[in-house]
């Protein structure tokens, strides 16, 4: 009998998306059967495998921003996390006595991290029992070379070289690249994560803290400080100065009549042209006015340069009532948004970023009601100030000087950058393997952002190489190609496509 060498797969990054890929590799390899032995190695630069940076938070006030009923780590089983909470309710109740296990609840992110780790442990044990060689390496993969045999030689931070047939890049969200010039300052934080770093450094509870951004990550940084007794003034220093809207306790079902995939495809077919952002804006406005049965003063709906506390008060009132029609419509698009996104040519996707994205994000990525009430109270107290139209930040003597576009200046003792992850591969310096692969032309920048891949398989595509790439990518690094890259339910479905193709390359039983 011929003894085959194991097929080897590396997963670089062991947060939720990396674990989703691992679970599906193990499950499919065992259930579908494969005559070749398999070896899977997970790499993680943090100490813990499974929870990832955000889900590894130690702050119970950091809540999921997506309802529990969408957070299952298995494809087409979005309720699995809820089922797991019910199965472990007694144990969960000891540590998280206030947590609801309802599908519409927003449990602490650290509880979700516990869930991901539990699934990792379960499938690791199952895989080992079935004869899969599974290794976990607590080190960072910092660079790689493709060999003449079209396999990968990974180079790790602990000065090792390890060969693999295929590599999945699941490196998670990189740090923001804005204000990189301030990195040398001890009082500047490139990211709010890990939160232990903030609390260890900002010991003066009266210090002036500026948080760059005003979206969900900025809110997490705010809650970290306030929940741990910070009393000094805090600023959101943001390009738009917009707070996210507030999520309703239960998602409101809505059947679209105008903004439908059918109508969108009809525009393309009848007008014999590609889809445009202006088409989507018109359809959305028509959908809103149809639902309200009245015209809307759209200029008045712009939330920039308005009192964010007053808007938040209104949003909370709407969330506890009948909801907001803008949010209701956009949430109803969840299953169609990616199909619509793929119909847009690159120039229209760029226009989406310029015209629509800030307004889209505050509606689709809204605040859980519990946190909205907390932010309202902080704003009412005067501790939090929201500053829009931001310009530059400089370090001068012993403090930061923050400048608006109009020249207005503010001062801060500490600055926390929560302005969102970089989408430019060259600037992902905290994930060195990606700029390394780009420099070697093993990956290619998408015309808008992120890595270029075959969207049917998540396999890297480049114009520079003739061979099929041994690299696959999932998550934020597909920012130019995909829309819901920060939604776990979406990445779980992409992991399904990815692992199907990867195991197909092994050549046995995957059709």
Describe the secondary-structure layout.
Elements: E1 7-12, H1 16-32, E2 38-43, H2 52-55, H3 80-87, H4 89-95, H5 109-129, E3 133-137, E4 141-146, E5 152-156, E6 161-164, E7 166-169, E8 188-189, H6 195-201, E9 209-212, H7 216-227, E10 234-237, H8 261-271, H9 277-292, H10 308-319, H11 325-332, H12 337-343, H13 346-364, H14 369-381, E11 384-387, E12 390-396, E13 399-404, E14 409-412, E15 414-417, H15 433-439, E16 453-454, E17 459-460, E18 471-473, H16 488-505
Parallel strand pairs: 1-2, 1-7, 2-3, 7-18, 8-15, 9-10, 9-15, 10-11
Antiparallel strand pairs: 4-5, 5-6, 12-13, 13-14, 16-17
Helix pairs in contact: 1-5, 1-16, 10-14
Structural features, described:
The chain has 511 residues and is an alpha/beta fold. It has helices at 16-32, 52-55, 80-87, 89-95, 109-129, 195-201, 216-227, 261-271, 277-292, 308-319, 325-332, 337-343, 346-364, 369-381, 433-439, 488-505, and strands spanning 7-12, 38-43, 133-137, 141-146, 152-156, 161-164, 166-169, 188-189, 209-212, 234-237, 384-387, 390-396, 399-404, 409-412, 414-417, 453-454, 459-460, 471-473. Strand 16 (453-454) and strand 17 (459-460) form a beta hairpin. The longest helix is centred in the first third of the chain and has 21 residues, at 109-129. The mean pLDDT is 94.
């Amino acid at each position: 009998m011929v003894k085959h060498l194991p097929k080897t797969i590396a997963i670089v990054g062991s947060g939720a998306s990396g674990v989703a890929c691992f679970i599906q590799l193990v499950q499919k390899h065992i259930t579908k059967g494969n005559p070749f032995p398999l070896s899977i190695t997970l790499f993680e630069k943090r100490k813990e495998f499974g929870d990832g940076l955000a889900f590894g938070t130690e702050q119970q006030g950091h809540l999921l921003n997506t309802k529990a009923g969408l957070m299952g780590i298995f494809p087409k089983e979005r309720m699995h996390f809820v089922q797991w909470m019910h199965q472990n309710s007694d144990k969960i109740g000891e540590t998280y006595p206030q947590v609801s296990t309802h599908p519409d609840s927003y449990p602490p992110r650290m509880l979700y991290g516990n869930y991901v780790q539990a699934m990792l442990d379960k499938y690791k044990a199952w895989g080992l029992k079935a004869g899969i060689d599974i290794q976990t390496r607590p080190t960072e993969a910092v660079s790689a070379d493709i060999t003449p045999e079209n396999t990968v030689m990974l180079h790790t931070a602990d000065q090792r070289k390890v060969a693999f047939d295929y590599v999945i890049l699941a490196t998670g969200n990189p740090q923001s690249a804005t204000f990189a010039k301030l990195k040398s300052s001890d009082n500047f934080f490139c990211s709010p994560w890990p939160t232990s770093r903030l609390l260890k450094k900002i010991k003066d509870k009266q210090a002036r803290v500026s948080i760059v951004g005003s979206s969900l990550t900025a809110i997490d940084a705010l809650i970290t400080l306030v929940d741990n007794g910070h009393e000094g003034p805090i600023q959101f220093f943001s390009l738009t100065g917009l707070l996210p809207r507030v999520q309703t306790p239960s998602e409101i079902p809505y059947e679209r009549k105008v903004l439908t995939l059918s109508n969108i495809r009809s525009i393309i077919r009848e007008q014999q042209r590609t889809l445009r952002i202006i088409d989507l804006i018109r359809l959305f406005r028509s959908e809103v006015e149809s639902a309200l049965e009245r015209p809307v003063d759209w200029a008045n709906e712009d939330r920039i340069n308005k009192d964010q506390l007053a808007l938040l008060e209104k949003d909370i009132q709407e969330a506890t009532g009948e909801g907001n029609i803008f949010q209701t419509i956009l949430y109803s698009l969840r299953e169609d948004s990616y199909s619509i996104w793929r119909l847009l040519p690159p120039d229209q996707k760029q226009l989406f970023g310029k015209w629509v994205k800030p307004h889209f994000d505050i509606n689709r990525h809204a605040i859980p009601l519990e946190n909205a009430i907390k932010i309202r109270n902080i704003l009412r107290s005067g501790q939090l100030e929201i500053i829009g139209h931001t310009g530059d930040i400089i370090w001068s003597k012993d403090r930061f000087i923050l400048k608006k576009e109009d020249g207005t200046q503010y001062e801060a003792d500490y600055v926390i950058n929560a302005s969102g992850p970089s989408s430019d591969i060259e600037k992902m310096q905290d994930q060195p393997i990606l700029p390394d692969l780009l420099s070697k032309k093993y990956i290619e920048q998408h015309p808008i952002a992120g890595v270029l891949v075959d969207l049917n398989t998540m396999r890297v595509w480049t114009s520079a190489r003739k061979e099929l790439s041994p690299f696959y990518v999932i998550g934020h690094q597909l920012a130019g190609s995909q829309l819901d890259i920060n939604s776990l339910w979406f990445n779980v479905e992409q992991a399904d496509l990815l692992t199907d193709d990867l195991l197909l390359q092994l050549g046995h039983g995957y059709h």
